[in-house]
Amino acid sequence: MTNPNNATITTVHTAAFTAGDALKIPTLRILKDDGNLYDGADKPTVDKATALKMYDTMVFTRVLDERMLAAQRQGRISFYMQCLGEEATTVGSAAALDEQDMIMAQYREQGALRYRGFSLEQFMNQLFSNEKDLGKGRQMPVHYGSKDIHYMTISSPLGTQIPQASGYAYAQKLRGLNNTTICYFGEGAASEGDFHAGLNMAAVHKAPVLFFCRNNGYAISTPANEQFVGDGIACRAVGYGMKALRVDGADILAVYQATKMARDYALAHNEPVLIEAMAYRLGAHSSSDDPSGYRSKEEEEMWRKTDPISRFRLWLVKQGWLDEDADKAKIEKLRTEILDALKVAEKVAKPGIEHLISDVYQQPIPALQQQLDELKQHIRKYPDAYPVTSGRLD
Amino acid sequence: MAKMNMLQAINNALDLAMAKDDTVVCFGEDVGHFGGVFRATSKLQEKYGKARCFNTPLTEQGIAGFANGMAAQGMKPVAEIQFADYIFPAFDQIVNETAKFRYRSGNEFNVGGLVFRSPYGGGIAGGHYHSQSPEAYFAHTPGLKVVIPRDPYQAKGLLLASIASQDPVIFFEPKKLYRASTGEVPEEYYEIELGKAEVVREGKDVTVLAWGAQMEIVDKAVAMAQEQGVSCEVIDLRSILPWDADTVAASVMKTGRLVINHEAPLTGGFAGEIAATMQKMCFLQLESPIERVCGMDTPYPLALEKEYVADHLKTYEAIMRSVNF
């Protein structure tokens, strides 16, 4: 029974606390580290083509991350963020979606982006902020986005995408689209006010949005046990009145299955669902970070053993879907392709000077046009000081 | 005296403030064990314990509200917002709460012991979410003090004065200079009075005014002008709110010319406030229009950062326009 307070009244006559441990949230695991399935686990429904695409995508991001982190160390790009150890979370979930479903990511979801078909060249153009970058060289590396493949451009401030995803999904519902929005964020970003606002709005307004939390244990240096005291993030979804699922984030079959189920439920019932993927951020937060200041090598080594790619590779081989020798050759070829693409992208020119003022508004306002004209005059006077643009002002 | 960079000077100031007064507490994202992403709070947890230097959850509005509550109770929180670009979730707590605590309660309550520290500004290939200079938003908020240091000596003295202040202070630190700016800094406790500008170089032809990281940009422009025989008087505003109109006006009365430089976009930037005040205070002495050299009216770019910024060449041109008007 509910009352005007919209809460269940179960009457007792002796005061008693209710604590979080009343809620036991199970963690879905299907695939073991050795590539075998857990006894009694649901049989994976993924077909061969999808499974191989999932694997290729994880491998692609792993190799790309290695190469681009090295490129950052060499000073070829200014910044980088890898998703080492978390590949299965974003690839497994993206694979469970429809291609028209919207993706609103935080910044470590290159797996989902690649799964959608973002090309190697597009990755490189963004990382080198060149004139072919869809974002016109305006954002730091890894702030990807593409309207064509329904991937909202990344914004650095944490958690801002969460209420936006609620609104986006609500609009999808109002417009009669049979699509959802998936919203990725970390357990750290779940502390932002926008998280609470976004979940409540989605629940109240029945937006078919999938909140996907990558609980990877760290927000830069801050471990999850200094971030929150409750039982992970999933318990909060229940507090907002939505369904929740918790999965092993290194188990791509579990992530895939949970996301499929969540998507079906969200669209069938017009309700948000929260998925919490238990993962470990095996790399540094970013190229600006050094984890040796806050965690041990031993801790990292322990988690390295739960590698999401190797366990899925073992499963694919057991299925007879993957030949290990051919796979090795393919990875070598990929390394070459990535290096070649890097060399091309770093030579592409930076965006033209007109892009200093474009897109601030739909059309540049007069004051901006005047500022650009004055800037061009100034650059003509000091061409050597502005080598990126001085040779092509007209 | 000891040679310190700006981070070391800030760390030293926090250390001295915590040692002097056990109501001073430092917190923010990654501020505890790790010592902050820039290491401004390095070793403070080790020295003063987890109760007085700690990590917070990742929530700027939470940090600001928590700081308001601690300060209202009588403590002196020094809360770090990891980047000034990320201060906006805390805007409500700062603008509607911090700034108005004393006023709205008729001085029944106040948050006078509160300091928000935050790295601001560009020049680090940070794009629009790691480069902004939001001082003008806060300068538009009566009840706050806004302070920006230019070098390690200034950073230490101004931060200690901010912590000692009976009013809440937003202390923006030029992150570009964190390690790049070094200098001799007294090891002992000292304060630099808030609300006072400093004439850092005397001259007679034109007054050049800036703050924070732009001071070194201005110095380069002034050296170029000097080669052309132009004598510049250089002022570091140091406090954006309240700001020292008298020191600036005295200089402009003498030189008859004013060039103001800031990193933030032109429109609505604090240079506009200074220009308006100076044209009133110095109307009959002005020899040329007041020049503003600022960021363009766009978000802070990445690939075209060099073109966008208020650099020394643009400042030099403005100085020469002012002198040759």
Automatic annotation (TrEMBL), chain A:
InterPro entries: Alpha-ketoacid_DH_E1_comp, DH_E1, THDP-binding. Signal peptide: none annotated. CDD domains: TPP_E1_PDC_ADC_BCADC (cd02000). The keyword Oxidoreductase applies. GO terms for molecular function: branched-chain 2-oxo acid dehydrogenase activity. Gene3D superfamilies: 3.40.50.970. Its EC number is 1.2.4.4. Residues 55-353 form the Dehydrogenase E1 component domain. One of its GO terms (biological process) is branched-chain amino acid catabolic process. Keywords: Oxidoreductase, Thiamine pyrophosphate. It catalyses: N(6)-[(R)-lipoyl]-L-lysyl-[protein] + 3-methyl-2-oxobutanoate + H(+) = N(6)-[(R)-S(8)-2-methylpropanoyldihydrolipoyl]-L-lysyl-[protein] + CO2. Its cofactor is thiamine diphosphate. The branched-chain alpha-keto dehydrogenase complex catalyzes the overall conversion of alpha-keto acids to acyl-CoA and CO(2). It contains multiple copies of three enzymatic components: branched-chain alpha-keto acid decarboxylase (E1), lipoamide acyltransferase (E2) and lipoamide dehydrogenase (E3). Belongs to the BCKDHA family. This is 2-oxoisovalerate dehydrogenase subunit alpha. It comes from Arsukibacterium ikkense.
TrEMBL record, chain B:
Its EC number is 1.2.4.4. CDD domains: TPP_PYR_E1-PDHc-beta_like. InterPro entries: THDP-binding, Transketo_C/PFOR_II, Transketolase-like_Pyr-bd, Transketolase_C. It holds the Pfam family Transketolase_C. Keywords: Oxidoreductase, Thiamine pyrophosphate. GO terms for biological process: branched-chain amino acid catabolic process; response to nutrient. Transmembrane segments: none annotated. Residues 4-180 form the Transketolase-like pyrimidine-binding domain. It comes from the Bacteria. Its cofactor is thiamine diphosphate. It is an enzyme of class 1 (oxidoreductase). This is 2-oxoisovalerate dehydrogenase subunit beta. The lineage of its organism: Bacteria, Pseudomonadati, Pseudomonadota, Gammaproteobacteria, Chromatiales.
